[in-house]
Give the backbone structure.
Amino acid sequence: MDFRLLPSTFGADGSASDKQHLACIVVNDEIAIDAGSLAMAADDKLRSRIRNIVLTHAHLDHIAGLPLFVDDLYASLISPIKVYAIQEVIDVLERDVFNWSVFPRFSELSIGSGPAVEYRAIKPGEEFRICELTFRSFPADHKVPSTGYLISDGQSTVAITGDTATLNGLHDLFTASKDLKALLVECAFPDELAEIARSSHHMTPATLARQLEALKPGCPIYVCNIKPSYRDRVVAQLEALAIDHLEIMAVGKTYSW
Ligand SMILES: [Zn+2]
């Protein structure tokens, strides 16, 4: 499986920056996990292929690109865009985003063969298949209802936490996964902002280190969802901790697992 974190910010020369304002990871160029920068960073190939979007939660940095992505494609769609999420996330999208005031309700707009957007409500722990891949959701520990996912092609499994304050609940899943190739985990704030991290249900390098010590994931760890204003400090603190097999997930790079 190929995983790529799409860019969401730009440097002074206009090229993509490694700072991450928005969350969107594309799998095999055909499935998006979160849609933060999907409309802004997807090239024509991704625009033509991605019709399945899996959401971890409804915070803006994870959904900002969803309305614009659907809007871009609406007139040319021949099949619906399927959005997979827990019911609480779908409810927020319909009530607060696709509510005709902020943006059109594409789940009620027809493309001839059906609505432009179809929701698939998933339950924590539920398994579902998209494009030959199996997704299994697990509850994350965030300020709002959130899920992470185990994604498997039958040979490799990759775990994505989304935003979370802990890795609680992953132990049994990881023990059962013999082919775990990577854990993609958040680390939003530096240690000096531990109180903000705690109250907003995010991690700092120190809390991530403690969580990993307890979980012992047994696979390489890739850190993403670092708040852009604190990226340099978070990276320096993670480097100082020298956690085995941990690296920062590079923006725009394709990882094959
Ligand atoms: Zn969040």
